[in-house]
Design goal:
Elements: H1 5-26, H2 33-57, E1 63-65, E2 70-72, H3 95-106, H4 110-123, E3 131-133, H5 134-152, H6 167-179, E4 193-195, E5 207-209, H7 210-214, H8 217-227, H9 231-245, E6 256-258, E7 264-266, E8 268-269, H10 276-289, H11 292-308, E9 310-311, E10 314-315, E11 318-319, E12 329-331, H12 337-344, H13 347-364, E13 370-372, E14 377-378, H14 390-402, H15 406-422, E15 423-424, E16 427-428, E17 430-433, E18 438-440, H16 446-459, E19 469-471, E20 477-479, E21 498-500, E22 507-509, H17 512-516, E23 531-532, E24 554-555, E25 563-564, E26 570-571
Parallel strand pairs: 23-24
Antiparallel strand pairs: 1-2, 3-4, 5-6, 6-7, 8-11, 9-10, 12-13, 13-14, 15-16, 17-18, 19-20, 21-22, 25-26
Bound molecules: 1-deoxymannojirimycin (DMJ).
Protein name: alpha-1,2-Mannosidase
GO molecular function, one term: mannosyl-oligosaccharide 1,2-alpha-mannosidase activity
Organism: Salvia splendens
Length: 575
Amino acid sequence: MLLGKRWASFLIFMLIFSTFYSQISSSKSDPYAAKKKRMSQKVRQMFYHAYDNYMTYAFPHDELKPLTKSFTNSLSELGNLKLERLPQEYNGSALTLIESLSSLVILGNNTEFEKGVLWLSENLTFDVDARINLFECNIRVLGGLVSAHILATDSTNRLTKGTYSNQLLVLAEELGRRFLPAFDTPTGLPYAWINLKHGVMENEITETSTSGCGSLILEMGALSHLTGDPRFESAALRALRKLWSMRSSLNLVGTTLDVETGEWIEFSSGIGAGVDSFYEYLVKAHILFGRDEFWRMFQPAYTAVQKYFRHGPWYHEADMRTGRATYWQLTSLQAFWPGLQVLVGDITAANSSHREFFYVWQKFGVIPERYLLDHQMLHPTEKYYPLRPELAESTFYLYQATKDPWYLQVGESIVDSINLHTRVEGGFASIRDVTTMELEDHQHSFFLAETCKYLYLLFDDSFLVNRNYVFTTEGHPLPILSSWHERLPEAYIPSNWTSVKSEERRKRASAMSQRICPATSPNCRHDHEQLESVCHIPDTRADYRCLTDDDCGVDSMSCRRRSCSMAGYCGLWLS
Ligand code: DMJ
């Protein structure tokens, strides 16, 4: 099976570059143009409702409390970043402003972007006695600053001449330097927490998560490329290599580990909380830096996920040592996975999982934090929806890849439910309990960095035309630059792609899925029957939906009969 460099190269061209070109030619005859315009305006209004209220009632603190029209220094759980030239007791890092900068550029609001850039340039400092979470501060603050710096130096964004002279990069570099002591461990795996002024605190906890130490490479790598200081990239890379060396013989990783001993603490893992962006950063680092090493890690890691966690369109958790299922839960963070699958070309698998996530969204009105698949009920305590972006993110990627208008419908429905259930006079509030739609007084910064951004880009992707970006896990765009690449990708179209759906609407799916589970499994006795399912081999019905169990055939991994889910998808449901 032909995978690896050439295949990845093709995907880079196909999925990031070419979709945007086709957009230009089709724009004139786009039958959905009016709908897209109407919806993009609606999302624009949502963004400004959230942003303006933040600026009025919470800035320069971290995040808005929309019900009481007040603020929270939520990064203070991660540590307070004090602001210079402000009274001592006035803590906050203007987190939501930092997180909003790239969205402002995407919305074409260069004036507000410039105002924010200049304000941060003059007021933000990291010389504070504050204990922060390395991962959160990296994806939100460092990522926000690096991305905004790149956008500020892009002449198309036309900042007033002479106003910007790398102030955000200077701030980012300072923050990056303050991260470095966290990596000073026997293993090179960083502590989860660091004091920005004093470094690692005495008796600091040594437990961290896989995503906490395995998803730093985009921001820290970009910082090294921009500053010429290799220490940031080296530290993140060393940690990632160490983490990868700790994988099990099944190529699975756990969820938590000890940074001093390099031993796993939690062996059960999945694609959700604590692990998610580890996978995301392997593939995105390959795209951004063109380095084979990332692909060589990603490929077996992805294969193992599909083999051990995937169950029809769902993903459960499993023990990294045995591959045995542990928890049968859907979590809202998992909904980013179809977006990642689009990046690797596994469109069919992406489509089927995305539909199930959307089905759960529709069932509750929004997606709950945790849903127990084996009991078909909500998790007793994790019934909340904190305005998370993951389903919108995957919807955006799938629309880019397929141009299937169904994803526009999904986007519209997400926009409508967010407006219906979470919009209040003072902004957008999180939902505490999806069964009662009781609200919680918190508008997370990722609502502006990600949720609104992906919804807007779904309906108006003009920002992406003729430009190639990778979005960090927090939605901050980083450009794909040949100067950052070890080697430029070659354009290559593999011949062994499976085609799916109906013949007249050919879609391509990656060959990777075939390799994971070949159509004819050796332990399968049903030679006469058509095998499908986990192999993503086309289902009998062209639209991929099933009406009855008879549409579903036999699972090629287990030889068990599949059944038709409530949402109309084949799988090894709870039978
Ligand atoms: C974001 O902060 C990032 O996407 C992170 O990787 C996990 N998800 C949250 C928002 O849900």
